[in-house]
């Protein structure tokens, strides 16, 4: 009697396996970004990762499992980057914290775009989307506390900061305005809100 197909990725125990999984996930991000989730094939992803198709299926038995792993990876990378910003010692002043948030946005912009397209395709992580949002609000609240302010009795300042970050994530590239100028304005918007939230008790 055959066992049912796995619904989760295989976690490699050796560094070589972890490196291969990372290469597969990076390749999947690129392929999903170039094509729709439906149009992308596991064969293309394996080729882009320079790995055998059998090796890909060993770690990710279906395309759904691979896509879900990308969602997990994005959430983990985003929270880790925010943790580094929050835990900076000494605490960063509002201008530097705003620049740090923009750096995270720029570093993960492409990955976030792919993740959103996967969610639009119906890929879900049961009970995880709300958990990630709650964790992100928590990180924003911690950042405000480190700046000397308070997220508010109902986390409304932390929620607003998260929405500002999301809005900057989704801003289209306006080629009539030089990228450095756009980035400067984004930092200014974040800095002004951080200063406001830090001053509000």
Automatic annotation (TrEMBL):
<protein>
    <submittedName>
        <fullName>TetR/AcrR family transcriptional regulator</fullName>
    </submittedName>
</protein>
<dbReference type="Pfam" id="PF00440">
    <property type="entry name" value="TetR_N"/>
</dbReference>
<dbReference type="InterPro" id="IPR050109">
    <property type="entry name" value="HTH-type_TetR-like_transc_reg"/>
</dbReference>
<dbReference type="GO" id="GO:0003700">
    <property type="term" value="F:DNA-binding transcription factor activity"/>
</dbReference>
<keyword id="KW-0804">Transcription</keyword>
<keyword id="KW-0805">Transcription regulation</keyword>
<dbReference type="InterPro" id="IPR001647">
    <property type="entry name" value="HTH_TetR"/>
</dbReference>
<feature type="domain" description="HTH tetR-type">
    <location>
        <begin position="18"/>
        <end position="78"/>
    </location>
</feature>
<dbReference type="InterPro" id="IPR009057">
    <property type="entry name" value="Homeodomain-like_sf"/>
</dbReference>
<keyword id="KW-0238">DNA-binding</keyword>
<dbReference type="GO" id="GO:0000976">
    <property type="term" value="F:transcription cis-regulatory region binding"/>
</dbReference>
<feature type="DNA-binding region" description="H-T-H motif">
    <location>
        <begin position="41"/>
        <end position="60"/>
    </location>
</feature>
């Amino acid at each position: 009697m055959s066992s049912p197909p796995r619904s989760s990725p295989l976690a490699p125990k050796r560094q070589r396996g972890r490196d291969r999984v990372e290469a597969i996930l990076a390749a999947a991000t690129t392929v999903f970004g170039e094509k729709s989730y439906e149009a992308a094939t596991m064969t293309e992803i394996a080729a882009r990762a320079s790995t055998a198709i059998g090796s890909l299926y060993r770690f990710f038995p279906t395309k759904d499992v691979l896509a879900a792993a990308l969602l997990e990876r994005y959430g983990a990378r985003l929270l880790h980057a925010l943790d580094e910003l929050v835990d900076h010692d000494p605490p960063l002043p509002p201008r530097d914290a705003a620049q740090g948030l923009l750096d995270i946005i720029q570093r993960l912009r492409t990955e976030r775009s792919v993740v959103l397209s996967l969610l639009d395709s119906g890929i879900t992580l049961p009970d995880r989307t709300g958990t990630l949002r709650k964790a992100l609000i928590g990180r924003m609240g911690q950042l405000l506390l480190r700046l000397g302010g308070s997220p508010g009795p109902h986390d409304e300042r932390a929620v607003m900061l998260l929405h500002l970050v999301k809005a900057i994530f989704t801003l289209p590239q306006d080629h009539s305005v030089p990228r450095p100028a756009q980035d400067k304005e984004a930092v200014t918007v974040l800095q002004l809100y951080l200063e406001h939230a830090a001053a509000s008790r």
